[in-house]
Amino acid sequence: MTLSELANYIATKLSQTDAASVAACKMFLRARYRMLWDSANWPEALALTHLATTPSVFQVMAAEIETVIRVFDYTDNTPLEAIDPAQLFDFNPSEWTGSGATPIHFVIGPNVAIPVTAEGSAYAIPGFQVSATNSEAFDVVVRIAGVQLAGGAPSPVSEVLAIPAGGSTASVNYYDKVFSLGVVSPDPSAPLQSGIVAYARVGGATVGPGPAQILPGARDADAFCTIRLLAAPAGAPTLLVLGKRRRNDLLNDGDAPIVRGCDNALIAFAQADMLERDRQYAKAQAKLADGNNELQLLANLKRQQAASQTRIIPADIHGALLTSGFTDKTHW
């Protein structure tokens, strides 16, 4: 069902078909879909992508990847193990500064707005400007924050750019590394329909295609996730990355959830929100319980579908395998 169909169904069921109630219902559906999307690694949410790395510690994921789940070194045909940074400090802290080797671990790194670094990667363009193009039908104001490495010491620098509808604006400052590019007006909380395209510029020329990236339809300050390879690779291995794709926000009336079978849960949750809006708190709690039940049924359905695989594996507790107990784990 589309956003409009879901909202009209709920509004009709509650006899609240006025325009304000329908608009509120759509807002609740969007929020509940975000909650549902974040609650599990749904099969429809997973994406597999190849990443051509660079001789750098941090590797920037493709725009479609929001969260990294698994990493496989396609060049050396070996999986990379995700490791907790605190655990790494306990048994091999020197791995943090290692380089020129085959990576064996990875940790989730910070999110960045534009995948441009000053750490020796293909995006290393010392002293570049940022040129932002606005593809919206209205004026947008963005804030850029980064650092300049004057004399080797990082110096924070930021500025605000006003970008006309369909136009471009270049930054006044020069950057060695950009940390964030976020929209500050007209409404920082609302999603962008098209997005902002940011390019690195040296002199007056636009540098591409590497640094040119589209902020994926959101006003998030940090749009691209990264991983840190341990140790930094000597060459440029190709990684096979399994990640969770970005959520398809229900922006327009014709948009529909891509998680199959979630309509009943969304209807129950949004109906609970509508009842709470109408101060019918007892009924809202009952509907909220229905929504949680529907969500659990949906999760069970995904686990029991034909494409799932259930295995019995030894439980790992504090690094030691149990000999008397086992746990089950399901993979899609």
The share of residues in helices is 10-25%
Strand segment tally: 19
Kindly report the spatial arrangement of strands forming the biggest sheet. 1-17-3-4-6-15-2
Topology as H/E string? Answer: HHEEEEHEEEEEEEEEEEEEHHEE
Average pLDDT over all residues: 75
Show unreliable segments.
115-124, 208-221, 316-332
The total of helices stands at 5
**Span from first to last CA?**
25 Å
Structural shape: flat
Largest sheet: 7 strands, mixed
Structural class label: alpha+beta
- Gyration radius, in Å: 23 Å
Q: Could you tell me the strand content as a percent range?
A: 35-45%
Oligomer: single chain
Commentary on this structure:
Helix 2 (19-38) crosses helix 4. The strands form five sheets. A seven-stranded mixed sheet has the order 1-17-3-4-6-15-2, with no helix packed on it. Strands 7, 10, 12, 13 and 14 form a five-stranded antiparallel sheet that branches. It has a three-stranded antiparallel sheet with strand order 9-8-11, with no helix packed on it. It is α+β, with helices and mostly antiparallel strands. The two termini are 25 Å apart. The model is unreliable at 115-124, 208-221 and 316-332 (pLDDT under 50). Helices cover 23% and strands 36% of the residues. The protein has helices at residues 3-13, 19-38, 85-91, 263-277, 281-304; strands at residues 46-52, 58-60, 65-73, 78-82, 99-101, 105-108, 129-134, 140-150, 153-163, 168-170, 177-185, 196-202, 205-207, 213-214, 226-230, 232-233, 238-245, 309-317, 320-331. Strand 18 (309-317) and strand 19 form a beta hairpin.
